[in-house]
Design brief:
This is Fe2OG dioxygenase domain-containing protein. GO terms for molecular function: metal ion binding; oxidoreductase activity. Keywords: Iron, Metal-binding, Oxidoreductase. There is one protein chain. This protein has 432 residues and is of the alpha+beta class. The chain has 3 domains: 178 residues, q2cbj1_9rhob like domain (Jelly Rolls); 63 residues, no CATH class; 130 residues, no CATH class. 36% of the residues lie in helices and 19% in strands. It is built from 14 helices and 19 strands. The strands form 5 sheets. Strands 1, 2, 3, 4, 6, 7, 10 and 12 form an 8-stranded antiparallel beta sheet that branches. It has a 4-stranded antiparallel beta sheet with strand order 5-11-8-9, with no helix packed on it. A 3-stranded antiparallel beta sheet has the order 17-18-19. Helix 11 crosses helix 14. The longest helix has 30 residues.
C-alpha cells in the first residue's frame, strides 16, 4: 500500500514563523486536548483581531498548491481548517488518522507547518508514522509535512516534556461544502459591517481614513442604521458625528483593540496545568512549578504576560476584560490598556520584534535560570548593563510598545480592507 507523504524543509521563512508564533502567543486559547492551546482564523475575527489573519494567507496558498501538486489534484482542493496549535508539557496523542471520526471524514489531506525547533524550543513532541518512511519527523523551524489524512498515514506525537511546540495545522478537502474560506468571509463581513456591499459608497472614505494620519476607520453611513443593527455593531463602529469629533487615537483604539472571548476559553483547569504558571500575590508575581493534575489553575493570558515580566492584580472572571494597568518588577506602568488581551498583544508584539535582532532570544527557554534573565531577553539588552534604561523604556510604554503595535495593525488592516471585496466576490481567500 502506497503511503504518500512529503517533507519540505525550509518551506517557511524564519521571519514568518516568528510572526505566526507572535499571533498565537498573543491570541491563543485553551485547546481541544489537555496542555494544548489553539488559535483559529475564526477566533481572530471573533475577537476583533481580524487583521491578524493576513500573515496566514500567502502561506495557506503556498501549502495548498504544494499539496495539490504532490497529490496531482490541481484546482480540486479547498482549505477545510487553518489553525495555530501549540503543545506544552504533558501534551501528546496516540496512534490515529486525521479522518478517524465521522465528523472528520471530509478531511482528505493534511499539512503540519513547524514554527519552532525540537531541542531548541522544546523537548519531546516527535512525530511518528506507524508504517513507511520517514518513520519519524523531527520538528524544525520552517519545515512542512504533507500527507494524506486517511488510514494509510496513521501517526502519533510523543509527549512534550519541556517547552512549547508550535505548529500551523491545515486540512484540505475536495468537498466544497466544507470550504473554510466562505465561512470566514461571511464572518468577516458580519464583523466588519462597514464593508458590506450595501455600504460601498463609504469604501473610499474608509480607505482614505485608514491610510491617513488619524488611523481611522470610516463611520457608519447613518446613526439610525447603526442603532437598528444592535449592540454588536456598536462595539466596532462610530457614528459620523463621533468620527468627526474623535481624535485619531480614539478611533484606532475602537477598531484595533481586541475584544476578549469568554474567560473560560483562557482558563487552564486543574487537569490541564503545566509548568511555571504564575500566581498573583499582592504586587508580586510568584512562580511555582506546576505539574499535571495539581490544584493550580490560571489564566493563560496572565501567565504569558508574567513570563515576560509583566503582571497585574486581578480576580478571575472579573477585571481582565476591563481597562487595566500592568506592573513591571515593582514599578506601576501609567498606560491603561483596554483589557488583558490588548496588553498581551502589545507586549508579545514587542517581544517578537526585539527578539528578531537579539542573540539572547535564541537561547533555549529551559536554560533561562530566573525571571530577570527573561526580562533581558525580552528587551533585547543582553545581560542588563543599565537597568534604568530598560525601566525608562517600559515606563514610556506607549511610545516604545503601543505605537509600534498600532502601526503594525494599521498596515495589516489596510491590506485586509483592500482584499476583502475581492474575497467576497470570488468566495475565496487569496493574496494579490
Amino acid at each position: 500500500m502506497e503511503r504518500k507523504r512529503l517533507l519540505l524543509p525550509g518551506f517557511i521563512s524564519p521571519e514568518l514563523c516568528e510572526e505566526l508564533v507572535f499571533v498565537h502567543k498573543s491570541c491563543g486559547v485553551v485547546g481541544y486536548r489537555p496542555h494544548v492551546f489553539s488559535t483559529t482564523l475564526s477566533h481572530l475575527v471573533a475577537t476583533n483581531s481580524a487583521a491578524l489573519i493576513m500573515p496566514f494567507i500567502a502561506l495557506r496558498e503556498r501549502v495548498k498548491e504544494a499539496v495539490e501538486e504532490f497529490f496531482d489534484c490541481e484546482f480540486e482542493l479547498f482549505v477545510e481548517f487553518t489553525g495555530l496549535i501549540s503543545w506544552t508539557t504533558g501534551a501528546n496523542i496516540g496512534w490515529h488518522s486525521d479522518d478517524n471520526r465521522d465528523y472528520l471524514r471530509q478531511r482528505h489531506f493534511s499539512a503540519v507547518c513547524y514554527l519552532n525547533t525540537y531541542e531548541q524550543d522544546f523537548h519531546g513532541g516527535l512525530f511518528h508514522f506507524q508504517d513507511g518512511q520517514p518513520a519519524t519527523v523531527v520538528p524544525a523551524l520552517g519545515t512542512v509535512l504533507i500527507y494524506s489524512a486517511d488510514a494509510t498515514n496513521i501517526h502519533s506525537v510523543d509527549e512534550v516534556v519541556d517547552g512549547e511546540r508550535v505548529t500551523m495545522a491545515l486540512w484540505f478537502t475536495r468537498d466544497q461544502a466544507h470550504d473554510e474560506d466562505k465561512k470566514l468571509i461571511d464572518q468577516l463581513m458580519n464583523a466588519m459591517p462597514l464593508l458590506r456591499k450595501e455600504k460601498d459608497d463609504s469604501s473610499d472614505s474608509l480607505m482614505n481614513d485608514l491610510c491617513g494620519e488619524n488611523y481611522g476607520i470610516a463611520p457608519q453611513p447613518s446613526q439610525e442604521k447603526e442603532e437598528s443593527e444592535g449592540n454588536a455593531d456598536k462595539d466596532f463602529t462610530m457614528t459620523p458625528k463621533q468620527f468627526q469629533s474623535a481624535p485619531g487615537d480614539a478611533i484606532l483604539r475602537d477598531y484595533f483593540v481586541p475584544a476578549p472571548a469568554s474567560t473560560n476559553m483562557y482558563w487552564v483547569t486543574k487537569s490541564e496545568t503545566v509548568s511555571s504558571a504564575p500566581r498573583n500575590v499582592g504586587c508580586e508575581t510568584a512562580y511555582e512549578t506546576i505539574t499535571p493534575n495539581s490544584n493550580q489553575e490560571y489564566d493563560v493570558r496572565v501567565k504569558r504576560l508574567a513570563t515576560l515580566g509583566f503582571h497585574c492584580d486581578y480576580e478571575p472572571d472579573s477585571m481582565l476584560e476591563k481597562p487595566l494597568k500592568l506592573k513591571y518588577h515593582h514599578q506601576c506602568i501609567a498606560y491603561e490598556f483596554a483589557n488583558i488581551l490588548h496588553a498581551l498583544q502589545v507586549v508579545q508584539f514587542h517581544e517578537w520584534r526585539t527578539c528578531n535582532s537579539s542573540s539572547m532570544c535564541n537561547k533555549n527557554q529551559h536554560e533561562v535560570k530566573n525571571q530577570h534573565e527573561v526580562m533581558d531577553m525580552v528587551f533585547d539588552h543582553g545581560p542588563l548593563k543599565n537597568q534604568h534604561e530598560v525601566m525608562d523604556m517600559v515606563l514610556d510604554i506607549e511610545r516604545t510598545m503601543v505605537k509600534p503595535w498600532e502601526e503594525y495593525m494599521r498596515a495589516l488592516s489596510k491590506d485586509l480592507l483592500q482584499m476583502l471585496p475581492a474575497w467576497q466576490n470570488t468566495g475565496s481567500i487569496f493574496t494579490r
